[in-house]
Specification:
Elements: H1 3-22, H2 29-44, H3 55-63, E1 72-76, H4 84-87, E2 95-99, H5 107-118, E3 124-130, H6 134-143, H7 154-158, H8 162-171, H9 181-199, H10 201-208, E4 213-219, E5 226-228, H11 231-242
Parallel strand pairs: 1-2, 1-3, 3-4
Antiparallel strand pairs: 4-5
C-alpha cells in the first residue's frame, strides 16, 4: 500500500476515534481546540469526515443534553461564505454557534456566549472574523467618508466595529483607503473580545479561573483556512478590562419580583 495513503488512513482512524470518544468524555480546552484545528485541516484538504451527522446522532440529540457534548462556542459573521460546522468539520451537538453580521458582541451576542460557556459548558470560545467582511468594509468606507445610506437598523448593528476600524487606521498610518480593511478585520476580532469582557463578568471569571479559554481567529473565505491569532493578546485585553472602572461588575441578572 502507498505510504502516503497509509498515513492518510491512519490520520482518519485516529480522528474518528477521537470523535467517538467525545460521547464518553467531553474534551477539555486543549482537546477542543485540537478538534477544531484538525477539523479545519480536513476541510481545507478536501478530506472532511462529516462526523456526528447520522440518524443515530439525531436520535441522540433528541434525548440528550447538548451540554454533555458541545465542545466549542463560536461567534462569527452571518456571511454565507462562513459555514461554521463545515469549515470545522463538526456535526450535530458539537458546536454552539452565534452568528451576527460583523461578528460584533453586543447584549444579545454576549448573552448567547454566556449561555454557551456557563450552561452548555463549552471549554472554549472562538471569536471568528473572516476575510472580505462586508460589515467591516462598510464601516471603513463610512469612516473614510465614502460610505452609502444604510437601512435604519444597520448603523446600530455595526457601530461596535467603528473603534476597530479607527484602531487599525491609527496603527497603520501608511495604509490608505481599502488597504486598511484586513487590519480592521483583525482589530474587529479584538474589539469583540474586549466588548465581551467589558459587559460579561461571568466570562471574565471563567477565563480567569481557567474554566474556559477565549481565542481569536480569522477565516479565509478564499482558501477555507482558519488562521489562529495569539492568545497572549486575549490575556492583554482581559488585563486592560480588569483595570477599567467602567467594566460591568455584577455577573448575575437581577431577579424580577
Amino acid at each position: 500500500m502507498n505510504r502516503q495513503l497509509v498515513v492518510v488512513l491512519s490520520t482518519l482512524l485516529v480522528s474518528w476515534l477521537i470523535f467517538c470518544d467525545i460521547a464518553a468524555a467531553k474534551p477539555n480546552a486543549d482537546e477542543a481546540l485540537d478538534l477544531l484545528k484538525k477539523g479545519n485541516e480536513r476541510f481545507v484538504s478536501g478530506m472532511s469526515m462529516h462526523p456526528n451527522t447520522s440518524s443515530e446522532r439525531l436520535i441522540q440529540a433528541g434525548k440528550e443534553n447538548q451540554g454533555d457534548h458541545a465542545y466549542a462556542t463560536v461567534i462569527t459573521c452571518s456571511d454565507s461564505r462562513v459555514p461554521v460546522e463545515l469549515l470545522f468539520d463538526a456535526g450535530i451537538m458539537d458546536t454552539f454557534v452565534v452568528r451576527v453580521a460583523g461578528n460584533v458582541v453586543d447584549t444579545d451576542e454576549a448573552g448567547s456566549i454566556e449561555y454557551g460557556l456557563a450552561h452548555v459548558k463549552t471549554p472554549i470560545l472562538v471569536v471568528l472574523g473572516h476575510t472580505q467582511c462586508g460589515a467591516v468594509t462598510a464601516v471603513t468606507h463610512a469612516v473614510h467618508g465614502t460610505g452609502h445610506a444604510l437601512e435604519r437598523n444597520i448603523p446600530q448593528l455595526v457601530d461596535n466595529i467603528e473603534p476597530a476600524v479607527r484602531a487599525a487606521m491609527a496603527a497603520n498610518p501608511e495604509m490608505h483607503g481599502d488597504e486598511v480593511i484586513p487590519a480592521a478585520i483583525e482589530a474587529n476580532v479584538w474589539q469583540g473580545i474586549e466588548d465581551l469582557f467589558m459587559m460579561s463578568p461571568s466570562t471574565r471569571d471563567l477565563v480567569k479561573n481557567h474554566t474556559a479559554r477565549v481565542i481569536g481567529a480569522i477565516y479565509d473565505v478564499g482558501t477555507g483556512k482558519v488562521n489562529w491569532l495569539p492568545e497572549s493578546k486575549v490575556e492583554a485585553i482581559l488585563a486592560r478590562v480588569e483595570a477599567n472602572p467602567a467594566r460591568i461588575m455584577n455577573a448575575m441578572a437581577e431577579e424580577k419580583h
